[in-house]
C-alpha cells in the first residue's frame, strides 16, 4: 500500500508540475504581450496626441491599425491586435 501511495504521489506531482509549467508559459506570454502592446500604444499616443479633435483621433486610429500589420515575435498576436482595436474604439468612439 505504501509503495502504491508513493507512485501515486509522484504521478500527481508530475501531473501538477506540467500544469504549473503550462501556467507559467501562459503568464509569460501574456506579460510579453502586455509589454509590447503598452510600448506600441504609448509610442503612437505620444507622437499623435493633441487637442482631441476628430482629425487627431482618426490619425491615432490609423496608426493603431498600422501596428496590426506588423509582426512581433513571442507574443499572442490576436490578443495584441484586440488591445489595439479596443484602444482605437475608445479614442474614436467607433469600431
Q: How confident is the prediction overall: mean pLDDT?
A: 81
Number of strands: 0
Number of helices: 3
Q: Which of globular, elongated, flat, extended, rod-shaped describes the shape?
A: rod-shaped
Largest sheet: none
Instruction: Give, in order, the helices and strands.
Output: HHH
N-to-C CA distance: 63 Å
What's the helical proportion of residues? over 70%
Structural class: mainly alpha
**Which spans have pLDDT < 50 for at least 5 consecutive residues?**
none
Beta-strand percentage range: under 5%
Gyration radius, rounded: 22 Å
Oligomeric state of this protein: single chain
| Whole-number total of structural domains | 1
Which keywords apply here?
mainly alpha
Descriptive report:
This protein is an all-alpha fold and 95 residues long. The protein has one domain (2-92). 83% of the residues lie in helices and 0% in strands. The longest helix has 47 residues, at 2-48. The mean pLDDT is 81.
Amino acid at each position: 500500500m505504501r509503495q502504491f501511495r508513493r507512485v501515486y504521489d509522484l504521478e500527481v506531482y508530475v501531473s501538477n508540475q506540467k500544469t504549473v509549467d503550462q501556467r507559467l508559459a501562459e503568464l509569460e506570454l501574456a506579460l510579453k504581450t502586455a509589454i509590447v502592446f503598452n510600448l506600441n500604444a504609448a509610442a503612437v499616443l505620444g507622437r499623435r496626441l493633441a487637442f482631441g479633435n476628430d482629425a487627431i483621433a482618426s490619425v491615432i486610429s490609423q496608426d493603431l491599425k498600422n501596428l496590426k500589420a506588423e509582426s512581433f515575435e513571442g507574443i499572442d498576436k490576436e490578443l495584441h491586435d484586440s488591445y489595439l482595436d479596443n484602444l482605437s474604439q475608445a479614442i474614436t468612439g467607433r469600431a
